[in-house]
Structures are given as structure tokens and as C-alpha cells.
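To: structure desk
From: M.T.
Subject: fold request, one chain
Message: Could you run this one when you get a chance? Sequence is below, nothing fancy, just the single chain.
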Amino acid sequence: MSLIRPFRGLRPKPECANDVVAPPYDVLNTQEARQRATGRPRSFLHISKPEIDLPADIDPFDAQVYAKGKENFAKMIAEQVLIRDAKPCYYAYRLVMGNHQQIGLVAIASVADYNTNRIRKHEFTRPDKEDDRVRQIDALNAQTGPVFLTYRRDASVDAIINTVITGKPVYDLVADDGVKHTLWVIDDEKQIAVLTKTFDAMPCLYIADGHHRSAAASRVAAMRHQTGDANTAASHNYFLSVVFPDNQMQILDYNRVIRDLHGMNAEQFKQRIATAFDCEPVATAYKPQRTGEFGMYLDGTWYRLNIKPELIPQQDPVGRLDVSLLQNHLISPVLGIADPRRDKRIDFVGGIRGLAELQRRVDSGEMQVAFALHPTQLSDLMAVADANEVMPPKSTWFEPKLADGLVSHVLD
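Reply: Done. C-alpha cells follow.
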């Protein structure tokens, strides 16, 4: 079995692409998806968030939701809004957000290699979210949300991609959020063979985003094996992916806001954190410039925090992460939040929202203190995955996000 392989993508007719393409299913809540899809019957949100077509009080995990998604998916195929390519292809996929550009390869990746950790993970998954994706894949008999993978840059892959993107794309559109999505079909047999062989020679791939989607694909494959479909070449043994070179990836900061100071006033709190951090006030909102440095907004003032160097465990790929340093030396021991996955006193704010959002949430009285972090580095993510370790929750925020509906993978 190959690490990746081409597939017969199911994708919009070119004239329908602008109407179909939608944000990933997990970046919008039901109300936002309902608003976004209003007046847009071809939006992929009718497939990825089908509760928007059911009564407002429906549970998003109700069996009717998955049945509605299946119905909507079948309708868009029957109406030829979505058409399947006649032969297996790869696809070059370019994302442009502001001054940032990245170009990846749309492919299907091996479940077997995921199971043996050749496709490496860095996060725990939640059973309820896995269950949701399993039910969605099983209902549609397709994978519609791509897993975001990365690999160490390879010159042979670069050469083919750079040749492909000189041709005419099948789609070139700008989504509602201003991100530009461009797709080229790679159907040349020689290029396909070189790409497959080049990736087969790689020691591993890394999951950047999509741990629940890949885990769900593995579970669906296992279910189908149990029902007698043990053909290793069957499409359910692969999952929909977009694979980007590491040198093009963009990770933004993932910041923290805390509801209270665990019974302390601001001065007592600052005294407590002084055992582990040097703290000095700054004139404006502070964005950390390096690892080991943090911005803190408290009581109307921004501060720069620097953790004491002797507290950084340089040989520990998880412990040396900024998210770990803040959690282990401040959020847990000082603020009493030992389990940030479940504690309702902490919330997380993606860097795409900016430092103004941190300040707003504290000034509103909703939260009492905010922390701005330096973005996790991709090399650190890879080191954690290589060590078969797991990163703390909410360690990475990748931008731009992949679109749903651009290419789907049907399970034959």
C-alpha cells in the first residue's frame, strides 16, 4: 500500500464552485452556518452542517442530521452540481491569505500508515467528536473534510507542483473570509507516478489539523473490515488529505483567557507569579517575540512576562513548549486550573482574532486576565510527534483553513 495515492475526486462543476465551497465544518457553530447558507442552496454547509435544514431545536448529533446530510449530498450529485473525475488524479491546491501563500497536494493517505504512526499525531481526540465524524463518513459513504498534513520539503515534489501551477486552474475563487482558493488537476501519469514514489520514500507525514477526521477514517476502515470487506486496496483504507511542505506552513498564536484570579487580587497574583516569571508593564498590547516570553493583560495594563530560563526543560519536547511552560508554572499552580480541557474557567482565543480580542474579553468583565503566547513552531510539533508524545490542548492554530466541498473522496 502506498503512503498516498491519487483518487477520483468528487468536486463542483466549475460554474458552481463559488456557490459550493464553504468553511470547514468545525469553525462555524450551527447558527453561524445557518446564516452563512441562507439563500445558498448549493453551499456545502448543507452537507457538512445539515442540521441547518432541520428545526432549530434539533440536536446536531441526532440521527436525522446524518440522514439529511446524506440526502443533500445525493441531491447535489444527482443534479450534477458535484461531478466525479473519470480517473484517479492528484490535485494541486493553493491557499492565499494576505501575503501568505502555501501550495499543497490533495491526495488520499493510508489508514494503515496512520495506524502504525507513520502518519504521526500530536493530539488526543475526544470520543464524541470521533463518533460524529464516523457517523458522517458512514452516512455519506464519503470523506468530505480533508485532513491537513505536512511533510519535510522535497525538491522533487516542488518541481512537479511548480510545473502544474503554470497551467490553467479548474477553480480560482475568493471565499467569504477573503482567502483565495485555487485548484489544478494533476492527471499526467508520469507526474502521478513520481509523486507517489517520492512520498513512498518519505519516512513519515505529520497531522497538522484533523486528528478527529483521521481517527474516524481509521474506525470506518476497521468497521468495514469486520463486515467482510478486507480488500487492502479499497478506498475506505485511505483518507482525504491535503499535504503541504513544512516550509510553507503558517502557525498563529493560540492564546488564553481566564475567568478569575483564584481568590487573589491583582497585586497578590503578580507576587505569586514572580517566582517563575519576570514581569514588567508595557505601554501597549504586547505580542511575544520569542519562545519563553508572554504577554499578559490584567486590570487595564499589559505586561511582558519572561519565564526564568532554568525552568525550561530543553530536552523535553513537550515540557519546553510555551503552552506547557505557561500551564505548568502559572495556570495550574497559581490559578488552580489543572485540566484545561475541561475547566470552564479557561477559554482559548485563536491568534487570527488578534490581541484586541483578548483585551476586549477582559475589559468586558467576562474574563479577568489574558495571556498572549508566541506561536508554536512546526519543528516543535514534529519533535513531539516523533517522540510519540502529545501536545497540550490548543497548542496550534493553523491558517489559512482548508475549504470543505472543493474535493471529496467517495468510498467505493
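Reply (cont.): Residues 90 and 192 are 7 Å apart (CA to CA). Let me know if you need anything else for the meeting.
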